[in-house]
Amino acid sequence: MFKNAIVKTPSRSMINGITSATLGQPDYSKALIQHKDYINALKECGLKVTVLEADEDFPDSTFVEDVALCTPHCAIITNPGAETRKKEIHAMIPTIEQHYKQIEYIQAPGTIEAGDIMMVGNHYYIGLSKRTNQQGANQMIAYLNKYGMQGSMVTMKEFLHLKTGVNYLENNNLLACGEFFDKPDFAQYNISEIAGDEAYATNSVWINGTILTPKGFPKTKLIIENLGYKIREVDVSEFEKLDGGLSCLSLRF
Ligand code: GLY
To answer: What is the CATH number of the domain that holds 44?
Structure first.
């Protein structure tokens, strides 16, 4: 069970965030409203939410998940692979220090963004994406081992982050899209395939028994319902325009 979440208010500069999407520029006012509803959804799942102030210097900084891995035993501050995102860690460290005594740091030339890390119990899958390299993953696995956890690397080509294309919903259930559907790494799980036209909804998140899923993806919603979960839809259309998924908007621990 998770108790806490950390989120960060989107900055006006988010309209200049990194993106490969062709959905147009985000509407900032709408993004703020959607972000507030996201916070409400986290609270409905029983989480105490820390809300960090917007930082205009970092357009992508609302996607807090990438800058830290928060485990039950330690927090690991990442070294984001995207140049414009590297210094996002500095504003996050004091907040992490309020929650964790044990804090570790990924060092260059290792890079890693925690959107590339999927937790399954004590095991952490690490996607080798354009943002996460092998040195970063090796350092992360060494830290996980130090605190009694395990990690393994997953090769990938199609998606921005590992969790853009695969997400664990607890109870052995996994949502997977594209290249992740038949990856041997995930063969032991009960995999539900998400259709390509709903790929964005693969990034649905288990929080204390409820699945947060993006609004507007009916086939995925039905799949999750049929797995027996309670669902909370969240409209995150303005964040989708920046390639940001539901999980990217919070740290949960
Ligand atoms: N726009 C989110 C990211 O590229 O990291």
So the answer is: 3.75.10.10
Atom 3 of ligand 1: nearest residue by CA position: 18
Q: Nearest to residue 62, comparing CAs of 225, 251, 188?
A: 251
CA distance 143 to 140: 5
- Report yes or no: 115 and 130 within 8 Å, Cβ to Cβ: no
Domain that holds residue 50: 4-252
Residue 245 CA to residue 121 CA, distance in Å, equals: 21
* Cross-strand pairs, 123: 120, 150
Are the C-beta atoms of 38 and 247 separated by less than 8 Å? no
Which amino acid, one-letter code, is at 207?
Answer: I
Pocket test for ligand 1, best of 13, 14, 15, 19 (most atoms within 8 A of CB): 19
This prediction's pTM: 0.97
Number of structural domains (the chain) is 1
Summarised one tens digit per residue, pLDDT across range 150-196 is 999 999 999 999 999 999 999 999 999 999 999 999 999 999 999 99
User: What secondary structure letter does DSSP report for 181?
Assistant: T
In sequence order, the 6+-apart residues with CB closer than 8 A to the CB of 217 are 198, 200, 201
Ligand 1 binding pocket mutation candidate from 60, 64, 116 (most atoms within 8 A of CB) = 60
| Cα–Cα distance measured from residue 184 to residue 245, given in angstroms and rounded to the nearest whole number | 24
Kindly report the backbone phi and psi dihedral angles of residue 234, in degrees, each rounded to the nearest multiple of 5, phi listed first: -135, 130
242 CB under 6 A from ligand 1? Answer: yes
Element of type H or E holding 3: none
CA of 228 to the centre of ligand 1 (A): 32
Q: Helix (H) and strand (E) counts for the chain? A: 6, 15
